[in-house]
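User: Could you go from structure to sequence for me? I need the amino acid at each position, not a summary. Structure tokens:
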């Protein structure tokens, strides 16, 4: 006796996603969590002055009786911001690459971070905007408009939104937006220096007030992105097959992109446009745990937090007693990696 399989049952069946054994994935997740915790601890110890663990523990308990403990007190919000921003950018990069099926997708390369930056610069220069909440909403709006614009430009012509066309559209848009930011800020000498410093991208000026205003947006964006894991697995098979599996392709793509835009906009509003984290992290994570987004997205968040925190610590060591902003360090790491990905002719799409 045979059992008939109805089309509706076929559409509801989740696609099988090749990947590593579950035990190896769990092991990699645990290792990433341990590495992230160790780097967070290193961020409290390492800086222009080394701080012994006794003073670190005292500062964590609220003490600020000497210079070492006062230094740790200032490093705590910096470390928290580096962890949160890295996790958000790593997660957003993985989602953007899944949505566009583009191995070159990254919030910086696609111009999303720079769109958020322009929106914030306009808000400060023209509308006297100075509250964290206003920064975040404005940055998210600017990121969303830029993302739609770049995708529309990259979709023109033959072949639709190919990886190379999207990368070129994003690079051209970013260059134009940088010029617009300069045009907006240069006439305003009172804000020019602070905007230029923020535009490099860094976590050194972090405070718990800004982190607290950013956190609800990060939580909302992360939840949206993680809920998009199964639809992203379907989209990886192609739009027609995803639709055959019962996915509403346009809705799934728009929802996942919304989560990524919220993450990018919120981070850019507080820390500035930090590039290349969302490019490097997902590629590394795919090598370790495979392409299943149910595992890839949380692993990308953990790895992104580790990478940005490590970059911040490296920036303090390289230029002692001065510091390199984390945006410069990630660019030094990410730019060669971007060139490597572009030159790999076999990587056309995900």
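Assistant: Here is the amino acid at each position, in order:
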């Amino acid at each position: 006796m045979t059992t008939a399989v109805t089309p509706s049952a076929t559409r509801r069946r989740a696609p099988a996603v090749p990947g590593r054994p579950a035990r190896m994935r769990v092991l990699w997740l645990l290792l990433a969590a341990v590495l992230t915790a160790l780097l967070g601890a290193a961020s409290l110890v390492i800086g222009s002055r080394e701080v012994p663990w006794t003073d670190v523990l005292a500062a964590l308990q609220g003490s600020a009786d000497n210079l070492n403990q006062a230094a740790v007190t200032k490093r705590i919000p910096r470390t928290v911001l580096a962890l949160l921003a890295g996790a958000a950018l790593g997660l957003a990069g993985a989602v953007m690459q899944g949505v566009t099926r583009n191995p070159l997708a990254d919030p910086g390369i696609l111009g999303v971070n720079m769109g958020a930056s322009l929106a914030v610069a306009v808000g400060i220069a023209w509308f006297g905007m100075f509250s964290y909440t206003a920064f975040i909403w404005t940055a998210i709006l600017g990121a969303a408009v830029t993302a739609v614009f770049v995708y529309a430009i990259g979709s023109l012509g033959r072949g639709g939104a190919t990886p190379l066309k999207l990368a070129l559209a994003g690079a051209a848009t970013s260059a134009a937006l940088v010029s617009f930011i300069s045009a907006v800020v240069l006439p305003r000498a009172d804000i020019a220096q602070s905007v230029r410093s923020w535009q490099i991208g860094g976590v050194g000026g972090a405070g718990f007030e800004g982190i607290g205003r950013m956190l609800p947006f990060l939580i909302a964006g992360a939840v949206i992105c993680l809920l998009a894991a199964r639809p992203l697995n379907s989209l990886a098979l192609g739009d027609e097959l995803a639709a055959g599996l019962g996915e509403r392709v346009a809705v799934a793509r728009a929802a996942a992109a919304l989560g990524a835009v919220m993450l990018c906009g919120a981070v850019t509003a507080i820390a500035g446009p930090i590039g290349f984290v969302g490019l490097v992290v997902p590629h590394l994570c795919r090598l370790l745990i495979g392409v299943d987004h149910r595992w890839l997205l949380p692993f990308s968040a953990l790895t992104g937090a580790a990478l940005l925190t490590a970059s911040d610590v490296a920036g303090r060591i390289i230029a002692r007693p001065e510091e390199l902003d984390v945006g410069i360090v990630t660019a030094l790491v990410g730019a060669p990696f971007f060139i490597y990905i572009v030159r790999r002719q076999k990587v056309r799409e995900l």
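One structural detail worth keeping in mind: Residues 79-343 form a domain with the ABC transporter involved in vitamin B12 uptake, BtuC fold (CATH 1.10.3470.10).
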